[in-house]
Amino acid sequence: MAIPMEEDQNEWDQINARNWKGIGLTDPIKSVEDKWLLLPAFLKVKGLVKQHIDSFNYFVEQDIKNIVKANNKVTSDVDPRFWLKYTDINVGFPDRNEMSSIDKKVTPNECRLRDITYAAPIMVTIQYTRGRSIVQRNVNIGRLPIMLRSSKCVLTGRSEAELARMIECPLDPGGYFVVKGTEKVILVQEQLSKNRIIVETDTVKGIVQASCTSSTHGGLKSKTYVATKKGKIYLRHNCVHEDIPIAIALKALGIQSDKEILLLTAGNTEAYKSAFSASLEEAAKLGVFTRHQALEYIGSRVKINRRVMGPRRPAWEEALEALATIVLAHVPVNALDFRSKAIFVATMTRRVLMAMEDEKMVDDRDYVGNKRLELAGQLLALLFEDLFKTYNTNLKSAIDKVLKKPSRTSEFDAFNTMQFQGDHLTSGFVRAISTGNWSLKRFKMERAGVTHVLSRLSFISALGMMTRISSQFEKTRKVSGPRALQPSQWGVLCPSDTPEGEACGLVKNLALMTHITTDVDEEPIIRLAFMLGVEGTSIGNLTTPKRLIAPFLDISLATGTEIYGPHTFVVNVNGTIIGLTRYPTRFVAQFRKLRRARRMSEFVSIYINNHHHAVHIASDGGRICRPTIIVEDGRPKVTSEHIALLKKGTVTFDDFLRRGLVEYLDVNEENDTYIALYESDIVPATTHLEIEPFTLLGAVAGLIPYPHHNQSPRNTYQCAMGKQAIGAIAYNQLNRIDTLLYLLVYPQQPMVKTKTIELIGYDRLPAGQNATVAVMSFSGYDIEDALILNKASLDRGYGRCQVLRKNVTLIRKYPNGTFDRLADAPLDENGQVAKKYDIIQMDGLAGVGERVDPGDIYINKQSPTNATDNTFTGQAASVPYKNTPMTYKSPVAGNIDKVMISDTENDQTLIKVLIRQTRRPELGDKFSSRHGQKGVCGLIVNQEDMPFNDRGINPGGCFRICTIKTRSADVESGTDTIMNPHGFPSRMTVGKMIELLAGKAGVLSGNLQYGTAFGGSKVGGTSAPIGRRLTDVLGRGHESDIDRERLQLCRQRYVDEWYHRRASGGLRLFWADLLPSE
Amino acid sequence: MQGHDDQEPTVHIRELKKDSVNFVLKNVDLAFANSVRRVMMADIPTVAIDMVEIEINTSVLPDEFIAHRLGMVPLGSSNCDEAIRNTRDCTCLAGCDSCSIMLLLDVQCNDHSTMDVTSHHLDVVPPGTPGTWSQEGDSEAGEELSKRGEGFGRPVGKDDGSPPILICKIRKGQHLKLKCVAKKGIAKEHAKWSPCSAVSFEYDPYNKLRHTTHWFESDERGEWPLGPNAQEEEPPRDGEPFDFNAQPRTFYFDVETDGSLGPQEVVMKGLAELQTKLANLILGLKSQPELDMLTSADPHSNGHATTDTWGGDGGGGAAGWGPAAGGGGGWGASSPARGGASTGGWGSASPANSGGGSSWGGGGAASSQGWGSPNQQANGWNV
Fold first, then answer.
1. Using CA atoms, how far apart are residues B375 and B383, in angstroms rounded to an integer?
2. Which of B60, B68, B258 sits opposite A966 (nearest CB)?
3. What is the pLDDT of residue A86?
4. Total tally of structural domains belonging to chain B
5. A667 pLDDT exceeds 60?
6. Are B66 and B167 contained in the same domain?
7. Where residue B377 falls among pLDDT bands split at 50, 70, 90?
8. pLDDT reported for residue B354
9. Are A58 and A518 in contact (CB under 8 A)?
10. Is residue A1072 part of a domain?
11. Residues A902-908: contacts with CB within 8 Å, 24+ apart?
12. Cβ pair A796:B191 closer than 8 A
């Protein structure tokens, strides 16, 4: 008996042996702690507005070169020997565009202050003929506004100290432009994806249609439809007058045999065959049998719009050209090989047949995977291409003009002509960005409102603007589809952050970890796919020598039978069919392995669509993706050891990507994965693990503590309101001169923080203050969400705010030689200075720090009376002057905060005067918590009348916790508010209650608490330290008998918002007032 | 109510520290106790910086910001009643030694590190220094100056080395030079004139009186939050019947001051202030002829209440007052009106009992007369 026992024992020992990396089989699996640290690591690499910056970088570094390459030659109609070629283009670093300046370096802040544009020169290298020789030179062709924090910006890669020297805030996300002194953002635009087939049905008309918007480099856009009409299928396109029966279209594309047409479209499926038969017959009925006949048929219906007069071409040629270049322009046609285009049209037809047969086979245009986001880089690329083409046309005509002249004194040098081309590019960029009008006739683009002024109401409003996505949909349309929350938005678009009202659901915001891709060259990917065993159907889209891949590539080999065979999957790259595979799972797995090994860009996505029997590979720009942790064999690849390295700072996020621990998934690829939310949810089928669940919220929604306990609309309201909060705006806020700036005198970081708050730096640039709040009814002046404020708190500085307003004037020089001037204060007959001039100093400007009363003059400017008189030739100094002063108009006195004198780019003297007012909260000012619960101040109550607890703390009393017993403003800890409890039941903001508890626990224990979404301090945990003071007995101070109420007296963050007042008085008439009363 | 009225009000001081006093007040009405609390918080005059004239400010903070912070600095204010006049009662035009204190601050940073400008940098200009006030000698000099103590008007903590209050931080080359004028005022006007930082106040720690209810999960008694004051009272016995006639008679106070006044002074001044208020009230309720008679007797003469007053002849109660409160509904916020329990002890005001009672009985007519009196308003006695 003893022996088996011993054997048993050994077995146990073996099992228990720490045999693999010190971990035994029976040990509990360690969970990856702090895996959220990947998030700051990600943000460190990518930043909060990485999408804008990446896109701009791609434009200035790559795209701009491609554009120039595509338009690189300027020739002359006059002299055939002349040519000019652009060989290279480079965007420099921003500099000062002034001849006289010695120090060319410029900072964004200088641009803001001086109302100039933060732009860099665009240098091209040209080669051209001069006489008989060929010359190479570098020319500056214009200036491109530079996005802040992009690779061309002077701020990139600077330390905090260096940024401080440049008067720039290290927390500022960048991603905007400074054009003529204003900060402009190019909002992210949402569009339906290009070059993909979208199948839709119109149940009312009974139409099924597949559409595809083609967009090639060069901006040519056209939309092709394959749609049903009375049970038959037609091809529809703008360039053809009427719908073309699909069989004719396919014949024209080179598929003459009816059998092949049937195979390519309907395949072997009986149902499709019968549905398609009518369409097939139609060609025969119309007497179209051959390719030539089909081309003739189409050619006679093509819209011809050619400008160049020439011999009229036969119809079939017109048709051939239209089919090759306009219809489905993105599918390449090499040497009139229409095979791939034919297959594409056949696929569209098949998709229509499938949708006719089964309603579920339609696509959803609201699905995020079918969307592409257009960013600053793409828009600028289009703009540049348009401007560059115009520039070249202008250059060409200028050159022609010179060359036309029969004799010249000196040899013609195109370089000189270029010098005289003016600033077409510069002004084009500046105009487009400052007005927001993208009107590019060449690309049939007419968009207004592309750019917006960056809102600097608060740090959060600026940040919120950078993550905003606007949709191309008309706001007035009352459709619910595009506005609804899509399940596919998970993790990439914030579910809470959207405005109320007409733009609801159309304007969205990016989630915290979202990344938007830029274009990746697809050719190497196609080659790679072939290497992995994809069998080709066409070589049309490949420039690789045919012999390399020839064994797989006989086009005619693949036809309907193969393509739609039971086990074949079609492989698509960016929507174009490249080949077939019989082992999609293996192919996809291998492809992913290569991607994880970084043999290609990490942003290339691949997924299997089982409904269509297709594998899709995407490498185009504008896809929305996010990083997730890879899980293999039921274990996340990221381990605690990796996180430890990350904490030490020895590795970065890129290392995680390079080692295949983390990968980007786009929305389509997500469908092919099984993502575990938490590590404990991992099952054998799991492929990925979320980095942190709270990243599904955006930057603004991330500020809400405990949002997962709130009713969802409250979070949405808060997202709109959080942006209005007054607080600190940027570290450089006191060095900025903005039109209107609201600052809080004593901003505080929230007691209850979230991880998002720390990540975006809201704890360093906070808006709002922590308040001691009593939730109770009081006095009746608190109905309808009104708040009661403690007068003593206000005395101590609670909610005190500063309003800084900019006043600008130019001291101009006029074309007739006269100029404006500044004058000192005039004296009246008694030799006294009039009251309104009392703050004007010798230089004609008000002194800094002086108090400005209503009606006071702060810039005593005088203008010549004959400024517009262009016939004037006399002495500029002797002309008569009139007073054109700047007068302070606000009804409330202010102080001169700053006076700035500078020059603009066109040498006009610029004077900016910043006037400051300090305001304290008063009745009617709006306050809000972080849960969409706003209210106005209804009553201000003396401290002794406020309710108080047994420790003498009243909402507004000083806190015992603060040991210093002074009333110094720093200690004004117990600021405060009474909030009516009626605000709770209908709003169901449980998160707010938890915040109250957590805040109180924090105050009592001297810690900051966390209210991170889907986590944060637990109620059980937070309330423990509160102990006995979980509830406070409040006495009502103002009544003769003290009522006692057992209530929460807690701390909560109150954010004060606008205290705007109406600037001018007067009654406003409403229609109701005008109607006769009954 | 009648039952305990015979007992005299008592004060038991449990702890007295430099800046706080903890005492138990017994045998007074809830309303009276609350009045004491309110008066201590809001009606005791102190001095605080009220006007700031900035000469040089090259710091990063704006002028108003610094001025506000300066106002919040507590200044030594003991014997404020006599040591300084209210500016509005003073005959001077723009400040004088009798009604104002001048403080100067002149700090410049010459180091490479950040320098803290604190309340310790504030220097009081000694009264009588020539050139302090713009118009010298246009005021009648009073005896105020002689009544001032050592640290009067000086920032609290400057003498005893306690940590100062930060006003502003400056770097090399920055300079802050300003002149402050401190004036007398009360917290009703601005919180900077409050001598208290917190006045804790509790009664009935076991909730025997059922003035409140408590939501509990399982055990009402166990979950009721008990504070240290609970030791002073007997816990309720099981099955003890609820006495719906019971009135709160014991109050636990803890008065913490910001240093401008000592805790003792705060309490005593508070009581004195309360007396003055009531005297004024009674005065206001007199019919005209009686008022004329009384004006000769200065109500301020009983300004300094001494401890004796506490134990003074509590006596009589005021039968006339009880119903009066019910009738004068509009009085809600001015709690002193009902503080009847020990009116008897209040010196010259006592004759009011009879007269006052009658005028109250008469209803609104008589009282409206009293309300309009400018005298009362000038004393800061408003609702």
1. 14
2. B258
3. 93
4. 2
5. yes
6. yes
7. very low
8. 34
9. yes
10. no
11. A902/A113, A902/A114, A903/A114, A904/A114, A904/A115, A904/A116, A904/A810, A905/A97, A905/A98, A905/A114, A905/A116, A905/A117, A907/A813, A908/A810, A908/A811, A908/A812, A908/A813
12. yes
Classified as helix, coil or strand, B347 is: helix
Report the pLDDT value the prediction gives residue A14, as an integer from 0 to 100: 55
Give the residue among B337, B237, B367, B310 at the shortest CA–CA distance from B24. Answer: B310
Higher pLDDT, A742 or A1075: A742
Vertex A66, ends A64 and A72: CA angle to 5°?
Answer: 95
- Chain A, residues 740-769, CB within 8 A of chain B, namely 745
Mean pLDDT of A339-353: 87
Query: Hey, CA dihedral for A396, A402, A406, A408, is it positive or negative?
Result: negative
CB A835 within 8 A of CB A796: no
Average of per-residue pLDDT across A354-362: 86
Nearest to A944 among B19, B42, B257 (CB): B42
Provide the chain A residues 781-810 that lie in CB contact (below 8 A) with chain B. Answer: 791-793, 795-797, 800, 802
What whole-number distance in Å separates Cα of residue B147 and Cα of residue B81?
10
pLDDT, tens digit, 9 for 90 and up, residues B237-257: 888 888 888 888 899 999 988
Q: Which residue has the higher pLDDT, A584 or B159?
A: A584
- C-alpha A816: how far from chain center: 47
B145-163 pLDDT, tens digit each = 888 888 888 898 887 778 8
Average pLDDT of the segment spanning A843-859: 92
Residue A846 has pLDDT above 50, yes or no: yes
Same domain, B7 and B67: no
Give the C-alpha separation, A196 to A672, whole Å.
19
Instruction: At A904, list the tokens.
Output: 């603009």
CB within 8 Å: A795 and B225: no
d(CA A497, CA A697): 8
Interface of A with B in 270-309 (CB under 8 A): none
The SS3 assignment for A635 reads strand
Of A64-68, A494-498, A937-941, B354-358, the least confident: B354-358
- Indicate if A911 and A960 belong to the same structural domain: no
Q: What b/e readout covers A37-67, taking b as 16+ CB neighbours within 10 angstroms?
A: bbbebbbeebbbbbbbbbbbbbbbeebbebb
Domain total in chain A: 5
Asked if A1046's CB is within 8 angstroms of B213's CB, the reply is: yes
Res A431 pLDDT > 90: yes
Residue A1022: CATH number of its domain: 2.40.270.10
Q: Which of A80-94, A421-435, B221-235 has the lowest mean pLDDT?
A: B221-235
Confidence band of B136 (pLDDT split at 50, 70, 90): low
CA dist A988 and A1061 (Å) reads 31
**pLDDT surpasses 90 at A641:** no
In a domain, A964, yes or no: yes
- B178 and B294 assigned to the same domain: no
ipTM over 0.95: no
Q: Which residues of B touch A1029 (CB under 8 A)?
A: 225
Q: State which residues form the domain around A824.
A: 807-868+878-919
Q: Give B212's contacts in chain A (Cβ within 8 Å).
A: 1033, 1043-1046
Shared domain for A954 and A941, answered yes or no, is: yes
Q: What are phi and psi of B24, to 5 degrees?
A: -115, 125
- In DSSP terms, B169 is beta-bridged to B116
* Average pLDDT of chain A, as a whole number: 82
**Stretch 191-250 of chain B: residues touching chain A, C-beta under 8 Å:** 191-192, 194, 197-202, 211-215, 225-227, 229
Q: What is the CATH number of the domain that holds A887?
A: 2.40.50.150
Q: In this model, does residue B182 exceed pLDDT 80?
A: yes
What is the helix, strand, coil percentage profile of chain A, to 5? 30, 25, 45
Do B38 and B153 reside in the same domain of the chain? no
**B63/A895 CB distance under 8 A:** yes
